[in-house]
Amino acid sequence: MSTYAIGDLHGCYAEFVALLEKLNFNSTQDTLWLVGDVINRGPGSLECLREAQALGGAVRCVLGNHDFHLLVVARGGGKQKRHDTLSEILAAPDREPMLDWLQGQPLAVSQGNTLMTHAGLLPQWSVEQAVAYSREVEQALAGEQSGRFLTELFGNQPDRWREDLEGMDRLRFIVNVMARMRFIDAQGQLDFAAKEGLESAPAGFAPWFQYPRDDDPHLLFGHWAALEGKTPGAKVRVEALDTGCVWGGSLTALNLDTGERVSVPSQQQGER
């Protein structure tokens, strides 16, 4: 019985299947943690989403920014973007059960001292706080107002946490931290302009994992393909799992029991 955490699939279905085969993954015994962005940009978005749903209780998945984008397009009145590969999902006969499954996934998954989110953990938040904030978003997505929630979800404000944030401002910030964050300043202010490697950090900002914490959680995240699975200068125990499969890199799994990484090469020819 093993637990594996796999980086961003982004619709790379052939590589997903190849990696599961290389791991000898057994859905009746093993557990799979998916770090979000299951879909979009790659050619097998529909197949990846179907497979993740079909694995049932063997999968624990968190929502990434591209997963939210699909929900906003499908149920929040959003528009597809130029490089999206969502049309097959939107036209599929089983689209509604798949979307229901996706909309029911959390922003954070924890086990013991290990926490998985798509983008990371704000240094000012504990693991317990992150899980509690994730539940707030889950409740909003499950509630009668989920359509309005998805309509108003995207935006860059507020860009700093306050415990007294309420309503959509509070929920939007929680989503932005766990699904979109890269660079922050020492007070936890988010920057959304810089999306490349560490050299693209704005003045006064640094990667969220370069700020020390008072506790010592084991943090798993994806989202940041430009890091190529590395976290230079990290001040926390952290594992970057997005190794850029959809951009021509590789798809990587981390064995949470042994710490071993297993990868398969990309079959894509994508460019960031």
Automatic annotation (TrEMBL):
It comes from the Bacteria. One of its GO terms (molecular function) is bis(5'-nucleosyl)-tetraphosphatase (symmetrical) activity. It catalyses: P(1),P(4)-bis(5'-adenosyl) tetraphosphate + H2O = 2 ADP + 2 H(+). The keyword Hydrolase applies. Keywords: Hydrolase. InterPro entries: ApaH (IPR004617), Calcineurin-like_PHP (IPR004843), Metallo-depent_PP-like (IPR029052). Pfam families: Metallophos (PF00149). Residues 2-151 form the Calcineurin-like phosphoesterase domain. SUPFAM superfamilies: Metallo-dependent phosphatases (SSF56300). Its EC number is 3.6.1.41. Gene3D superfamilies: 3.60.21.10. PANTHER family: CYTOCHROME C5, PTHR40942. Belongs to the Ap4A hydrolase family. Hydrolyzes diadenosine 5',5'''-P1,P4-tetraphosphate to yield ADP. This is bis(5'-nucleosyl)-tetraphosphatase (symmetrical). It comes from Halomonas colorata.
